[in-house]
Amino acid sequence: MEAQTLYEKLWSSHVVHQEADGTALIYIDRHLVHEVTSPQAFEGLKLAGRKPWRVSSIVATADHNTPTDHWDQGIQDPVSRQQVETLDANIREVGSLAYFPFKDERQGIVHVIGPENGATLPGMTVVCGDSHTSTHGAFGCLAHGIGTSEVEHVLATQCLLQKKSKTMLIKVDGELGRGVTAKDIVLAIIGRIGTAGGTGYAVEFGGSAIRALSMEGRMTICNMAIEAGARAGMVGVDETTIAYLKGKPFAPAGEHWDKAVAYWRTLKSDEGARFDKVVELDAAAIQPQVTWGTSPEMVVTVNDRVPDPAQQSDPVRREGMERALKYMGLEANTPMTDIRVDQVFIGSCTNSRIEDLREAAAVAKGRKKADNVRRVLVVPGSGLVKRQAEAEGLHEVFLAAGFEWREPGCSMCLAMNADRLEPGERCASTSNRNFEGRQGAGGRTHLVSPAMAAAAAVAGHFVDVRTLG
Amino acid sequence: MNPFTVLDGLVAPLDRANVDTDAIIPKQFLKSIKRSGFGPNAFDEWRYLDVGQPGQDNSKRPLNPDFVLNQPRYQGAQILLTRDNFGCGSSREHAPWALEDYGFRVLIGPSFADIFFNNSFKNGLLPIQLGADEVDELFRQCAANEAYRLKVDLAAQTITRPDGKVIAFDIDAFRKECLLNGWDDIGLTLRHADKIRAFEAQRRAEHPYYFA
Which pLDDT band, with edges at 50, 70 and 90, does A119 fall under? Predict the structure, then answer.
């Protein structure tokens, strides 16, 4: 048989039906649901008199709107509260495999709770009404974000209409330098191929530097595949994947575990499999990254300067750069390390897992938040991450440094709750999008790794974390 | 969904690349549990001078005179010219809901982000991908001519310019059929319910651990 890519294996094992033009019905194994993109879907289902096809595929949580402090006071914003209560009511009515509502001890960001509960398994198709569903591809599954109409479609039919994507291999070989993390790898990738570089592709991340990453690191990389335009990012299954899943609540056990593992070990691209496109990066050459503009592709290393639009020959790009600099309140050619920050956000589905918090704490330990930094938010990805961090004493490190230790949720990644930037405020953020207004109207976001965010918090400006010692 | 057949509509240009769905509809409006009513908040941060909140009377808010869609000549536009990677970022379907509610039925650009592209078709909004040179020319003509209109014929897969030039465009046959007829995807898929059940039964037998 011809050598196959991981994507081709995942695709062909889920095709239920195919139209003449190649549009296929793909079976969906896991449907993750949150409060923002599901209410209209549940309503549509009800209005059409339809029932969910298989409720045991549903894992749900409330994360986007939930506050990260004063949980005893509930959700203050009535519009946010209504959305969360609508999810409560919908799940109560239709059922689910698992529901982690607001304040539940396992509540958290949907892309954190799926994997940590073993609800995301290799070989699955995983969808969610959220673009960062690509995160789950770290487990060797086909995972991508969908719109609300598609949420309704999956609820009603357990399938999705899809066309097969082209395949891209992004190969990162070599050893990462000290202080350089998965976040820096993926920002460097986006800097290289651009925010539309992956459009139309399913991207597999491979190479020795990816293999060497923990599952947390792989999730960070796959999470931001969408920021490179690719709906799905993925990493082949190996012993790291299998070790992570063993003993997780919804992972198989006993005889089923052995059977599953035997299958999962086949979930990697075959030797000699052909990709439509291959991009190669040298891990050793990757430096700590900081974005300077309003698109994740507007990224440089921390020791670079803010780029100069005058050097850009393409007029649409030049105008985009000028607009970004104006919005960001930056002058061309300013050293990145001269840029001072007002807030720091450590959290989001990109970087809120235990390893991310450990990296941030290692930098914060024995140091203090700089005086010019108004606030440092540390928001764990889930209740389980929070408890693990507290068991390790990480919260004490953060509190001693003058950081705030919050309850889990999406928080200031998209600022749907009360955590946000004020107009003109500048933030070092471990999240995934530096779009205009993303973290609050008029807010200015610079994307960095957890270690670099903690370093900016203690220095008061961007600084190469490797120089902190 | 409303069928889409032929549209002869006024064109508005949005001359910037990487327009993300946060810009098309900011997050505070995502708290709604409805599908409609997002039009007045489309491009909210660019369109108004104040910070928008859900439930406001938008007709009383100060408009940003520098934002292109606020110019009198583009009022009533149904076709939006865009640049590369339009609709990138969040998967929020509120973005096509907002564009459709604003009055757009066709988007023309050199490239669209995948999830946004999919979501558009589910809402009777037709995104058309053309070569960068074709799009450049449309931007030029639109700027040079007041009341610039294009005729979009989905069945024929053509755009006709006022100067008579006809531009062909590609679209997946299945999507075209759905849009022309205004078909509901779910209804179509459920015609294959037996196939889905059979597939599911086989998968359950081979991989029981996915059905815990």
Answer: very high
